Amino acid sequence: xxxxxxxxLFAFLTISAFAQDVIKVNxxxxxxxxxxxxxxxxxxxxxxxxxxxxxPWKSVENAMKRRSKGLPQEEGVTLTVDEKNGYILFExxxxxxxxYYCRMEVCYWNEADGKHKLVAFNNxxxxxxGRPVYTETHDLLFYRYNNxxxxxxxxxxxxxxxxxxxxxxxxxxxxxxxxVTKWKDGGTCTQKTLKWTGSGFRK
Length: 203
Hints:
The protein is 21% helix and 37% strand. The chain has three helices and twelve strands; from the N terminus they run H-E-H-H-E-E-E-E-E-E-E-E-E-E-E. A hairpin with a 5-residue loop joins strand 4 and strand 5 (116-128). The radius of gyration is 19 Å and the shape is globular.
């Protein structure tokens, strides 16, 4: 009986954990836009009651709300929403010399099978004095959207295992590839391109 109970508990916890990684995407029209993916993601990421500093996507969510209401953005904030190319860019400058700023992106790719889309949320580019600053809130998240179920499920893709190893990423506004910048001591850096394969990326 104990073995059965433990097996049941494990199965329940596994199902619960999986359910937490599923995001429903609501939209109007024939298909979702990058704005629809962003809103669904933000609602999920910002749902907890933690400190505002633990919810970096809240700033982007607020900027998009101001845009939808026709309000000017807060000082230092620039928001670019490119529905045609499936891309959103949020930038915030924290001082007049632009020596401290953050850059956050959302974009998606149509997968080769015609049944899925890959959606990325990139919060891996905050800079101080020209150097990236890494905190526990920085991340590059991928979700696979199913056209039939209208849901996004978190996925891990090859090529991103070392994403915290002094790397920053630039998602594509045009084209399909991701540019990786690897930072070295002294502020120098090298770049490489991760090529889109139709369902993921290769180095």
